[in-house]
Structures are given as C-alpha cells and as structure tokens.
User: What shape does this take?
Amino acid sequence: MPDTTIASSSPTSAPASSRADVWGRMLRIFAWLSFLAETIIIGTGGAVRLTGSGLGCSEWPLCTPESLVPIYADQGVHGLIEFGNRLMTGVVGVIALAVVLLVLFTIGGARTLVRTLWFAVGGIVAAAVAYLIVSQFFEHAFPVATGVLLLAVIAAAVYSTRTATDRRDLHALAWIVLVGVVAQALVGGITVLTGLNPFIVGFHYTSSLLLVCVTAAFLSRLYAVPGPRERVVPAWFAILSHVTGLALAVTIVFGVLTTGSGPHSGDAEVLRHGFDATVLAHVHSWPGYILAALVLAMTVAAWVLKLEPRKWLLVLVIAIAVQVGVGVWQAREGLPPLLVGIHMVLASLSAATYTIVVLHLKKATAAIDRVDA
Assistant: This one.
C-alpha cells in the first residue's frame, strides 16, 4: 500500500493505489509542517532569550509552583512569551509524532504501526512509575520521568529502523526528529532549573538547529528516488563540500559562544560565561567570511561543470550573503534583539540548505540509469 514516491511497491488495485496516494500526500504535508515548526521554534526560543523572558516561568514543567500557565501579575509579558514557547514545543512534538506514525503506516503497514505503539504504551507506563517513585524522595521528579520516556522512544526508534524492510532512511530520519524533540524538552527543563546556564542554552539552540537540518533531510529523501546511491560529483568537489561544512560548523559554534557572551542572556539577573564578546565577535566573523568564499567557489564550479547540487548552492550562497549582511548590521547597531533573532533563524536555514546540498552530491542509481537510458 505504500506510495510509489516513498517506497518501492508492487502493482495494486486502483482503490488501494488511491488510498496510498492519500497517505503519501498526508506524509508530505506533515513533513513540511515539521520543517516549518522546527524553524519557527528557533524564532520563539530566540524571542524568549532576546526579551529577557527565559525565567518568565520559574518552574518546569509547570510555569509556577501552582499552575501550568502564568498566573502571577509580576510575570507579565515575560511569562506569556516563555509559556508560548513551551506551547510551541508541544506543537513540534505532535507534528513529529504524526510524521513517525505516517511513515510507519505508509511504508510498513498497520502491523508495523501497532508493534511500535506498544513501545509508546510501555514508555508512558514506565515514565509514570518512575515519576511516582522519584517524587517520594526528590522535588524534581519530572526530568527523570522524561528521561525514562526518552529511553523508550529511543528503543522504539532502534526497533522500528532495524525491522524496516523499505526506506530505512525515512524511518531513521523521522525517529531522529521525535527523539530530538523529547530530548529538547528535557534540555529545556534543565535550562530553567539551572537558571539559564549559558552553555546549556547554547546547546539547546544548536540542537534545535540540527533538528531543522534533519527535517530538511527528511523532505529531500522523501521526494528522492529510493534505492542505492552513488556520487555524481568529482571527488575534489565532495571534499570541498565537507570542508565547507566544517567552516559552517565552526562559524555556528563561535556564533553561539558570541551570543552567550553578549547582552542577551535571557534574564537580567543571569551571568554570562565570561568570554570577551567583542573579541568573540571578530573570531566568529573569520570562519564566516571563509565560509562565504567557499560557498561562492562551490557555486561557480557547480554551474560551470553543471553539477547536480548547483541550484541548491545558488540558494545557499544567497542565504550566506544575507546572513553575513545581517551579522555586520547587528554588530554595528549594538546587537538589537530583532536583528539577533533574524540572524539565529537564518543560521538554521543556511545549515538546512547546506544539508540539502550535501544530499545532492549523490543520486539514486535507478535515477541515473533512467537518465542514461
């Protein structure tokens, strides 16, 4: 019953094929929603930090010791912003779960879906038991329960991916997003409980950025021809692509450290991690300019040689150029929150575009044979 664009299938009757088309269309819709939601939550998370709302909700998973939602007058807009970001986490999680369920059903069928759901039931029961036991001895039992649930999700992911007979790539990518969302919820709680430790905040952002990349990869593989893949670019170009990826990673890491040393800590009372933000801003710019030069060189080479990823490289070079422009602008204007937030979102979109470029270094053997024929 799988959609032919998603998994290999044998001929089916017209009604069955029609049902497969419907489920395949739903999977594509939710895959796009997952990518958009992961991008949006970087914006809402940035809003929390840039407006000083990081401790707008003083507790986790509750917002206050007595309530799930903001109830105190002194929380004001900060409580609403922080609670809004927590709600967005729920939206992201529901969409990620929907993508996993659709992959399981569309590719593996109802039996695969039911078997995997037993892991969900077991994980929820185990998490509830862990919460009841730990709460008898410690005040913060919810992180432990979330950790137990995370382990159950990981177990389900491993089982589902290893037993899949078709499109293991889609299984793995869908599960990575769901595992990542659950893990991010746990990290978010730790962030609040540790009083916005800048290293944990930075890790929280970087993890969100990686999830944007994974959802982009899922979309790319969802629309690609399935089957074994082989490289369709020269070896030197592939090596240059990975060097560019290293430059991108270094730029992002130093960007996170720079933001962690700057004025936007998430709360007026939070201490930064002590690095000189002015020096880090300059250090952050160096790999950024190297990255821009590498991407430009790759783009020119790809178009001259008519290589497969040339169109996505054009998108990437535009994204990097805009990112450099915003970075210079925000530095000269004294890091206004709006520009910093735009810079954070653009970084995730640039990384996602680079992910698509890398995936286009290879192409399905079936697609190559089809073109040659």
User: Anything to note?
Assistant: Residues 1-5, 7-13 have pLDDT under 50 and may be disordered.
